[in-house]
Design goal:
Structural class: alpha+beta
Number of strands: 8
Number of helices: 3
Strand order of the largest sheet: 3-2-1-5
Order of helices and strands: HHEHEEEEEEE
Low-confidence stretches: none
């Protein structure tokens, strides 16, 4: 052997090694993508439930703190800028002081405490049976009670098989999040 061949080291990949690496990478991405999308949508579902639960708890605590009724209602105020109670919770919601306990935000008398953005497209907010969109305002009294039982179901996009989350309110006014209660509709409401 001559001196040149002994000192020469091979660097780089052969075409076959490169092709095998690309095939392994392609299979890994193809297998991991659906699982990653499930994980992302599951996280978003929990996040939307948490936002709704935060709004319910804010309404309750503000009613007690201010010693006046406070209402949580569906509103597109985050998009339109108009403080009105109308539409579905999926379109966004507001928390406001509500001295006369009506479903209206009275200019001058009522104060909008916080405005919440709509939930992402494809997700839905329904009643526990999944038969109707969530539209009813929730009013907390100064003693912290809502004097009603209510469950709001947060559903993922139809194409993902994820268990829904539910925000459950009891008569005393306490709210909690539960997983897997209720039935999501086959199509978004």
């Amino acid at each position: 052997m001559d001196r040149m061949s002994r000192n020469c080291s091979h660097r780089g990949l052969t075409l076959i090694e490169l092709m095998i690496t690309l095939v392994i990478l392609g299979v890994t991405v193809a297998v991991a993508t659906p699982a990653m999308q499930q994980l992302i949508h599951g996280s978003s579902l929990r996040s939307q439930t948490s936002r709704l639960l935060d709004a319910v708890n804010l309404a309750r605590s503000e009613a007690v703190l201010r010693n006046i009724p406070v209402t949580l209602c569906p509103s597109k105020m985050a998009v339109t800028g108009e403080a009105t109670c109308a539409g579905r919770f999926a379109d966004g919601w507001i928390v406001f002081t509500n001295r006369d306990r009506d479903p209206l935000v009275d200019p001058g008398a009522d104060e909008v405490i916080r405005v919440f953005e709509p939930i992402p497209a494809g997700y839905s907010l329904t009643n526990l049976a999944g038969t109707a969109a969530a539209v009813e305002p929730i009013t907390y009294l100064p003693d912290g009670s809502s004097r009603r039982n209510l469950s709001l179901l947060v559903c993922p996009p139809v194409s993902y098989r994820l268990e829904p989350w539910t925000v459950v309110l009891n008569t005393v006014g306490r709210a909690r999040a539960a997983r897997g209660e209720g039935q999501c509709p086959a199509a978004a409401i």
